Amino acid sequence: FSFNDQISTGSFGTSGQKIRVDNGTGTATWTLSLAADAGATSFWDGASSDYDFNDPTAGALDGGDTDSLGGQMTIDPSTSTITPEGGCTLTNISSGSSGSFNEGVTNSITLASAATGADTGCYWDITDIDISQTIPPEQASGNYSIDMTLSIIAS
Prior knowledge:
single chain, four-stranded antiparallel sheet, 155 residues, mainly beta
């Protein structure tokens, strides 16, 4: 462990593991978002210790949320790559903006969306969404997991 908070970074949606939004409906509008399975009280679960994904307190310390854990995850889809299926376009398809999970305030983050006028009967592959996680000081090393769900909601 480190005596200071640390930031771990990664990429969600790699070239070999794309996020595919397939809109086979006649409705053009949809939203793709990411949230923790167990809701706002979820946390990174380890064998001997845990840490938070949605506490905005500086230095990854525990703040005023409902648990006694520090740490925060930030998702930045603004630099992602969206590739349409052949014959389809990116018209009215947009990446979400950078956001950090914050218990009770930001419980899900929009990764991409389609507005009126977007193609229907098409799919789009999304890659290279930046993710960072602030890890609390003195956090024990080990394997941690958190279950999260991608949701595609037509509107």
